[in-house]
Amino acid sequence: MQLRYSFRLYPDTAQRIALAKAFGCARVVFNDAVRAREDARRAGMPFPVASELSKKLITEAKRTAARSWLGEVSAVVLQQSLRDAEAAYRNFFASLKGTRKGAKTGAPRFKSRKDKRQSIRFTANARWSVDAAGRLCLPKIGPVKVAWSRTLPTTPTSVTVIKDAAGRYFASFVIDTAPDVDASAMPDTDLKIGIDLGLAHFAVLSDGTKIDSPRFLRRAEKKLKKGQRDLSRKQKGSKNREKARLKVARAHAQVADVRREFHHQLSTRLIRDNQAIGVEDLAVKALARTRLAKSVHDAGWSQFVAMLEYKARRYGRTLVKIGRYVPTSQTCSFCGRVDGPKPLHVREWTCPACKMVHDRDINSAINVKKAAGLAATACGAPIRPECLLAQRGETGSHGFSSKPCVA
Question: What is the pLDDT of residues 93-130, one digit of tens each?
Fold first, then answer.
């Protein structure tokens, strides 16, 4: 499988200027490709193929006075920008046909020079390299200082240089890994757990472990509010406004970085210690439209589950997602009785049938484990409970209801 390894770059002033030229040239070529496709569509002509666009928008354009500055950057960067436009149209058409998974994608749009995130890609044809001093040597840019936080396991197939909204530069390397080799690095274990994701606690495991929610955004709100207030008072187009914007962007980037690091550490620990993991398929988009929206975004459940997915594939573990309408918080994990929906403030409840007292989150995690087929009977055989019909009064049980079910 392919993975990305990102490292911080520290270009000097001349290299920043060269990177800005490369970002601009790649953006112009992308926009020219979109414009050529749109012109052909309006004229009722077939879309020009990639080879025609490459000849017209790169090779011939360099010979004109209006586009002569395209020759100041690596040709590979321009070719990769055309490939990005091709991929954008391919995804758009696949989304229209319904053959592409996920949310519907719109038609490719023009990129703006005011976009706060810029990127260019170098493949092996660009002959980029890493010198003996550990600097990343890029064509027509020069050797750029890299902050290596770890070693690359194999030779990268490509590198993408990214400038984010906070003005930071990163090098993202694409690495091909062997799942068999990665799986052999993991310790042998037969443990299986269920995970209940929530807001009071970020995650509660079926073995009773509770992992507190760090609430990174909530803790940084005071700093963010002050920075945003200062930004609103600056005159548009002024240098002071750009400085204030960078200050706010860096504060948001810091929150996103620590949240990502927390997700990485927790997901790696769970994958390392367990052979199989069960987790709920939460309706994060629906929950983000409720009064809990800020807390839901702060938790970052989708990013965490995505990390569990790719790490499970990489290291040979099993990840099972259960349906979002399984009443895990309403079912007694001991006798299986469905007791109906409960308000969020009810954190403990007693089963009317077996009189078992349940912690709401731990009980849900155990039910997630059972619904994923990871629990075992006395003889060791896995069990999976029968499908239960949702309660008529249960939130989200109707097909057209937009109200989410919060466990």
Answer: 999 998 988 788 899 999 999 898 999 999 999 999 99
The residue from 86, 180, 273, 361 that is catalytic is 361
- Report d(CA 88, CA 80) in Å as an integer: 12
Average pLDDT in the 2-20 region? 95
pLDDT-derived band at 282 (thresholds 50, 70, 90) equals confident
Residue 1 one-letter amino acid: M
CB within 8 Å of 237: residues ≥ 6 apart? none
- What's the confidence (pLDDT) of residue 91? 93
Which tokens hold the place of 155? 């030779």
Distances (CA, A) of 186 to 179, 180, 271, 272, 317: 11, 10, 9, 6, 9
Is 257 among the catalytic positions? no
Q: Which residues pair with 280 in a beta bridge?
A: 322
How far is the CA of 376 from the CAs of 321, 365, 369, 384, in angstroms?
18, 15, 10, 9
The question of whether 361 is a catalytic residue gets the answer yes
Judged against a pLDDT cut of 80, whether residue 394 lies above it is answered with no
Long-range contacts of 396-400 (CB under 8 A, 24+ apart): 396/283, 396/286, 396/324, 396/325, 397/325
The 10s digit of each residue's pLDDT in 329-373 is 888 988 888 888 888 888 888 888 888 888 889 999 999 999 988
Tell me the three state secondary structure of residue 222.
Answer: helix
Catalytic member of 38, 52, 131, 196: 196
> Is there a catalytic annotation at residue 196?
yes
**Distance between CA atoms of 401 and 158, rounded to whole angstroms?**
45
Name the catalytic one among 280, 298, 359, 386. 280
Residue 278, pLDDT above cutoff 60: yes
Please state the φ and ψ torsions of residue 161, each to the nearest 5 degrees: -95, 125
Mapping DSSP to helix (H, G, I), strand (E, B) and coil, where does residue 225 land?
helix
**Spacing of C-alpha 147 from chain mean position:** 23
406 has pLDDT over 60: no
One DSSP character per residue, 229-293 reads: HHHHTSPTTSHHHHHHHHHHHHHHHHHHHHHHHHHHHHHHHHHHH-SEEEEE---HHHHTTSTTH
**CA 394 distance to own-chain centroid:** 31
Amino acid, res. 328: T
Measure the CA–CA gap between 259 and 304, rounded to whole angstroms.
10
